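Let's practice the habit of predicting before peeking. Look at the sequence and jot down your guess about where helices and strands might fall. Then scroll down.
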Amino acid sequence: MEWITTVLVFLIMREGTGTSYYKVTFENPDPCALKGSSVAFKCSYSFNEGETVLQTRWYKGDFLGEIWRRFKLSDLPSYDNRTEYLGDRKHDCSIAIHDVQENDTGHYYFRFDTEKIGFRSKTSVQLTVTELIASVYPDRVRAGEDVNLECGTSCQQLPSIKWFKDGRPVDKPVFQAQAVDSGNYSCVIEGQESYKSDPMTLVVQYAPLNVSIEMSPSDLIVEGSNVSLTCSDTANPAADKYTWHKDVSSSMLQVGSGQVLSLPSVNISHSGIYLCRVWNSVGEGNSMGVLLTVYETDIHHLILRVGFGFKVVIVLLLTMIIIWACKKTRASPVDKEEHSHVYEHVNNVNG
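Done guessing? Here is the structure:
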């Protein structure tokens, strides 16, 4: 009977119960870490004075079938080169796990062995691995409507959050959407900018903007020419209606529809100011007016003749300048000698 009692006491001590001299304490028993980051389990332990710690080990708890087992981290290939023991064989049992992944979520235990006893922690560190989740509410708006950016994890508390749109910082998580706000938004925890959430897309719908007209041909237009006016814009959704208007007696008269206005064989009556109006499901936009001037054919010929004559005059002037320059630089030796004699004669008279 005495022998059985001794064995029971020994077994109880092996399990770390029945004595207050052996103890393991976790500073934060419920850490939460971002996927891809590093996490440290702050841990301390105590034992009887005079004993020496021979070995320390960390375990992870998991089910083997229906049985809860504890597996040494050193025996699990998925932890190779990712664990770093930060403690010692005195009182610090802290450990770090790097590049944490979702399957690292779970319960962790610490054990130390002295020459007298092996003691395993009664409680565990329960690690939660999470990812940042960005949310955009709503994710499809019209220009001028409010947008709210939210960033969350499965952790209860988050430090300061920073937002980025297409890689550029966002000033406020709540704003009135404009056309330029369309894009991909992601959030980070301040100080851990390398761990970003998956991007979420914001689509901003807006009425046609930057409406402009391109005229072809763009130079001199004479009677009988074929002229086309093309209306361009930016809009979301794309514009689905175009109308053309001409200023007639200070009122805008509709003269066509469609993105391109074709004016075949124009005449003087086609001259005037044209503009286009554009619509989509959000609203409308207007271009600036473009002046179309149609010249009579005779005037066109006159302009061509005047232009040709102007070119001839320029060529003649350039030719005369070149000839004058050449004469200037090619003075004859006789001229030079005559000038030198005159200079000598003047000197002799003065002498």
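How did you do? The first helix runs from residue 2 to 14.
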